[in-house]
Write a structure and sequence with these properties.
The protein has one domain. Helices cover 60% and strands 3% of the residues. Helix 3 packs antiparallel against helix 14 and helix 7 crosses helix 11. Strand 1 and strand 2 form a beta hairpin. The protein is globular, with a radius of gyration of 33 Å. The longest helix is centred in the last third of the chain and has 26 residues. It is built from 14 helices and 2 strands, in the order H-E-E-H-H-H-H-H-H-H-H-H-H-H-H-H. It is mostly helical and 286 residues long.
Length: 286
Amino acid sequence: MEFPSYSNVLENFGQDPRPSARGRGPATQDARVGSHNVTSSEQPPQNPAEPGGDAPREWWQEPGLPWKHKPTRSDIACLSWMGAASLYGLILLPLRPVMLGLAPHVLGSLGYRTGLVMTGALGSIGDPWWPLVLVLGSLMAMKFDWMYWWAGKLWGHGLIEVWSGRSPRARRRNQRAIAFTQRFETWAIFLTYLPIPIPAGVVYAALGAAGTSLKKFLGVSFIASLLTSALYIYLGWVIGEPAVELINAYGNVLWYISLALLVGIIALAWWRARTGKKPGVPGPAI
C-alpha cells in the first residue's frame, strides 16, 4: 500500500475535494450574507428602494418637465395655467377668421392684431367703439404674460430648456432671446408686441428668472400693449374703407379658412395619438 508523498499533500491542500469542484481553479472563500452563503466574487442583488441601489424614478422626474425638484402647489398651478392658456388659443384659432368678418370688435377686444386693425378701419368711417376696444384689447393682449414670468421665477431657465428640446436651432434662438433680455431688460417687452420673430414666452420667463418684480413687469407690459394696440388701430384707420370693403367682399372665404384650421388641429391631435407622442409642456399661447 502506497501513501501519498508529503509534496503531493501540500500541492492538493486547500482544493475542494468534491468532484463537481474539480477543474474550477482555486476555491474562493465563503462569505455569509444574511442567510445565504455567497462567494466573494458574487454580490447579492440590490433592492432599488434600498440605499446604494438605483431608486425608481418618480413621475415628476420624467424628462421634459421644467422643474428639478418635487413639484409644489405653485409648480402644479403654474403648469395648469399654461395648459389652460394653450387650450384657449387652440379653441380660438379656428374661430378668429370668422370673428374677423362677423365681430371684429370682439376680436380686437381679445387683443388680436387683425381685430384691432379692422376696428381702426371701422372707426375711420364713423364707428364709435374703437376707444373701448383699444383699452380692452390692450389688457387682453397681456392676459397670459404673467404666467411665463411666474414660470421663470419658479424654474429659472428650466421652461426654456424644455421648449428648446433637442433642436439646436431652437436652442440658439432661445439663447439669443435670453441674451437680448439680459442686456435690455424690460425694454425687451416692447419688441414682443411687434410682429417680429422674437419668442415672447422666452423673454418673459427670462425676466422672471432674472428677478424682475411682477409690478414692474406688468406695468411695462401694459404700456407696451397700449402703445402697440394704438398703432394697429391707427394702421386700420389709415387703410380705412378699403379694408372694410375687403372683409365684406371675402367674408365667406373666412369660413373656409376656419374650417381648414379646425381640420388641421384635429389631424394633428389624431397623428399624435397614433404615434404615441406624449404631450409636453405647453408652449406659449397662440
